[in-house]
């Protein structure tokens, strides 16, 4: 039984009995991984934090129905993924104009561009920020299954748990992660000296 080997499942069973300290312990442990997953999926950290709150609200509301049939983290990340997909679908139905767009851009006209009179060479901080932006763009362009698999892998979620979240086989999960890493490596090679996507674990 997962609750016997998964301390988080045991905590969730305590939440089921109304133990708020157990719930707070789970939120504290998983808040950052959930926000990281949502931020990379949605491309907006502030929005990710809002959705993360909804994730934990749903966890709490579902406590009475919770059964420790799988690891708690698998159940949690499945909820997070589903809410992220719901948000992406909502966006597609109600696209918003970026606040960065001027009135001319919204009307389909070219945006005004301003010359940088200082013409200073980019600092290391700017270069790193540009690389981060390229990484985020490359991640956003991955197929959803590949992106989710890779992001969960980077959060040290096991292959088995990722497979359960994505509802696919273990071999398919490993293939998704491999394809995602190869795509990112190819796309980011011009920006990295080595052209190698860093391994986080074997």
Description:
There is one protein chain. The model is unreliable at 97-121 (pLDDT under 50). The chain contains ten helices and no strands. It folds into two domains: 1-93, RNA polymerase sigma factor, region 2, helix turn helix motif (Rna Polymerase Sigma Factor, Chain: A), CATH 1.10.1740.10; 124-195, Winged helix-like DNA-binding domain superfamily/Winged helix DNA-binding domain (Arc Repressor Mutant, subunit A), CATH 1.10.10. The chain has 202 residues and is mainly alpha-helical. The longest helix has 23 residues, at 20-42.
Brief account:
With 202 residues, the protein is an all-alpha fold. The protein folds into two domains: 1-93, Rna Polymerase Sigma Factor, Chain: A (Orthogonal Bundle), CATH 1.10.1740.10; 124-195, Orthogonal Bundle (Arc Repressor Mutant, subunit A), CATH 1.10.10.10. It has ten helices and no strands.
Total DSSP E strands: 0
CATH class call of the largest domain: Mainly Alpha
Oligomer: single chain
How many helices in DSSP terms?
10
N-to-C SSE series? HHHHHHHHHH
Mean pLDDT: 81
Strand content: under 5%
Largest sheet: none
List keywords for this structure.
Arc Repressor Mutant, subunit A, 202 residues, Rna Polymerase Sigma Factor, Chain: A, mainly alpha, 0% strand
């Amino acid at each position: 039984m997962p609750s016997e080997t998964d301390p988080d499942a045991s905590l969730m069973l305590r939440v089921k009995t109304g133990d708020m300290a157990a719930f707070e312990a789970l939120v504290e442990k998983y808040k950052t991984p959930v926000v990281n997953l949502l931020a990379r999926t949605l491309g907006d950290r502030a929005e990710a934090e809002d959705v993360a709150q909804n994730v934990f609200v749903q966890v709490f509301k579902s406590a009475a129905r919770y059964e420790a049939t799988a690891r708690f983290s698998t159940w949690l990340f499945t909820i997070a993924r589903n809410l992220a997909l719901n948000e992406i679908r909502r966006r597609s139905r109600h696209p918003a104009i970026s606040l960065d767009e001027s009135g001319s851009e919204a009307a389909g006209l070219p945006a005004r561009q301003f010359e940088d009179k200082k013409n200073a060479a980019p600092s290391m901080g700017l270069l790193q920020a540009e690389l981060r932006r390229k990484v985020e763009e490359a991640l956003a362009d991955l197929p959803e299954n590949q992106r989710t698999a890779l992001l969960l892998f980077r959060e040290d979620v096991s292959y088995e748990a990722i497979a359960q979240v994505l509802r696919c086989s273990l071999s398919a999960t490993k293939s998704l992660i491999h394809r995602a890493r190869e795509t990112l490596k190819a796309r980011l090679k011009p920006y990295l000296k080595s052209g190698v996507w860093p391994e986080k674990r074997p």
